[in-house]
Write a structure and sequence with these properties.
Blueprint (H helix, E strand, L loop, with lengths): L1 E4 L2 E4 L5 H7 L7 E5 L2 E3 L14 E6 L5
Parallel strand pairs: 1-5
Antiparallel strand pairs: 1-2, 3-4, 3-5
Length: 65
C-alpha cells in the first residue's frame, strides 16, 4: 500500500504502526508517531492499523553533546 511518510510517498509492507517503525529501522524508544494529524502513544502502536493513503510522521530524537 502507499502512504505518506514524513512528507513523501512510499510503499509500505506493514499493516500496523509497530511494523512500520521496525520497517524503517528506527529505535521505538526514541520515536514519536503521528497518524493523520493525531499523536499515537507507543502503547497504541500495535493496535494502530495503517491504511492506504494514511499520512504518517515518525520523528526520532537524537541526543548530542
Amino acid at each position: 500500500m502507499k502512504i505518506r511518510l514524513n512528507g513523501r510517498t512510499i510503499e509500505c509492507r506493514s499493516s500496523r504502526l509497530t511494523g512500520l517503525v521496525r520497517e524503517m529501522g528506527l529505535a521505538p524508544s526514541s520515536v514519536v508517531a503521528e497518524v493523520n494529524l493525531e499523536v499515537v502513544t507507543q502503547e497504541k502502536w500495535e493496535s494502530t492499523w495503517i491504511k492506504d493513503g494514511d499520512e504518517i510522521e515518525l520523528l526520532s530524537f537524537v541526543g548530542g553533546g
